[in-house]
Amino acid sequence: MISSSTVVTSVVEKLRQALARGQWRSGEMLPGQRELAEQMGISRPSLREAVTVLETLGLVRSLPGKGVLVLDADAAAAQEPVGDAVGAASLADVLELRYTLEPFIVGLVAQSANSQDIGQLRLTLMDMREALDASDSEAGVNAYIAFHQELFALTTNPIFQSVVQQTGNALKQSADMLRNSPEHLTARLRENEAVVRAIRDKNSAQASAQMRRHILQEGQRMGIELNIPDEHPGP
Fold this sequence. Notes:
InterPro entries: GntR_C (IPR011711), TF_FadR/GntR_C (IPR008920), Tscrpt_reg_HTH_GntR (IPR000524), WH-like_DNA-bd_sf (IPR036388), WH_DNA-bd_sf (IPR036390). Keywords: DNA-binding, Transcription, Transcription regulation. Residues 5-73 form the HTH gntR-type domain. The chain is mostly helical and 235 residues long. It is built from eleven helices and two strands, in the order αααββαααααααα. Strand 1 and strand 2 (67-70) form a beta hairpin. The two termini are 35 Å apart. 31% of the residues are buried.
């Protein structure tokens, strides 16, 4: 099953490319929601979420009772595709982004996650443990990345979904470093288990704190000192 966040990200990119090609010019209106959703083979709610992301990017504006106005089609051509903006990011950049975003996301997830969501997270942690028992560092890294992507997918805010897509790509960029330190898989598993326990207990503050601690520990394991504002809450 394709997640709603994946659908929305795909729609955003298709619409951005259509704007870049000049399919709709600045000052023109997009087709009506029903027509455009049918053309793209998606649901109207997914289309509305994608339009919200495009509004945030400054490419369109929703006009009540009128439709969606194209603001700057030329800007769409100049923008990097969704997810490519982190291409030149360092590992420190990746961890700082994760430290900013992931604790807030898991706090929200702790409020809304149901038993099925928690069960899926725990299954992925079991994959990590099985990989650890089998000394399979490749499988362990893949399970680690899958776990964090599953957390991302549980957010329902469409703006977060766009940013989260970039974070997910950034997480994959750090995979080589993770593979080079299989001895830390036990610590990663233990820290992620603490996050899931807090989510299970619907303790948002604790879930956020455990995720901050995990990312700070990741930085220490990689020899990276994160640039965290002094006033920011500690782990």
